[in-house]
Design brief:
This protein has eight helices and ten strands. By secondary structure, the chain is of the alpha+beta class. The protein folds into two domains: 1-38; 52-220, C8orf32 fold (Roll). It has a five-stranded antiparallel β-sheet. The protein has a three-stranded antiparallel β-sheet with strand order 1-2-3. Helix 1 (3-13) runs antiparallel to helix 2 (22-36). It is globular and about 45 Å long. Residues 5-21 and 23-40 have low confidence and may be disordered.
Length: 221
């Protein structure tokens, strides 16, 4: 089923209430469509677009929408804390409190800066935006950490772990497995179909953070 076919089918399901089918029938129809949605696990790739459903119901955004080096709020922070990548990294770690999503919600950089709290993909996108503001070719990476869904920023092969409370080097880069890397103009998959696999990875923020804490503690000795 293509995106256009799925969209037309969804529009046919919604008016069934007027036919007396009732709420249960509507729910069953929508559930069936969701099972056959071209997004699959909320990610859909077609004609050079990498679309994700991670905000409002029915809203699709390209991955690249979330990295915004020209955003005025990003530019303001860059001029305050840049251009050194480590300073920008430390700003994100210290200024944005890590809070796990309820469900799945991706924030834009301005929302992260205004709210002061976000999860891993949001802080990674903010840092990637800040580095990009300085002309650096950084990427947000979506993948897994020891089997759990995660996001981080990469610049010249260096992993910037934005869930830390201050800037530091990750002690276990071998435990980071990349699926997709993107910035404001580019998307790269580590293998064909990696993008569609993103949302099939297990999500347990508590377990993931515990594993990170163990690795960090072991490195500190």
């Amino acid at each position: 089923m293509t995106k256009e076919e799925w969209d037309r089918a969804f529009l046919r399901v919604v008016p069934v209430a007027s036919l007396g089918i009732g709420v249960l029938g509507i729910a069953l129809g929508i559930w069936t469509l969701q099972r056959s949605s071209p997004l699959g696990q909320r990610a859909y790739h077609e004609d050079g677009h990498y679309l994700v459903a991670v905000r409002h119901p029915g809203q699709w955004n390209d991955l690249r929408d979330f990295v915004q080096p020209s955003n005025p709020d990003v530019v303001t922070v860059y001029h305050q804390y840049g251009p050194a990548p480590w300073n920008l990294f430390n700003f994100v770690c210290q200024s944005v409190q890590y809070v796990a999503d309820i469900g799945e919600w991706w924030a834009f950089p301005s929302e992260v800066l205004a709210g002061g709290q976000a999860d891993c993909e949001d802080t990674s996108n903010l840092l990637t935006s800040l580095l990009g503001c300085g002309g650096l070719n950084a990427y947000t990476v979506l993948g897994d950490y020891q089997g759990y869904g995660h996001a981080w920023t990469v610049l010249n092969g260096f992993i910037y772990e934005t869930t830390y409370m201050s800037a530091r080097q990750v002690p276990d880069p071998q435990n980071y497995r990349a699926l997709v890397a993107f910035n404001s103009f580019d998307v790269r998959e580590t293998y064909a179909g990696a993008f569609e696999d993103i949302f099939s990875i297990s999500r347990d923020e508590g377990a993931k953070l515990n594993l990170m804490a163990v690795a960090l503690e072991a490195s500190l000795g």
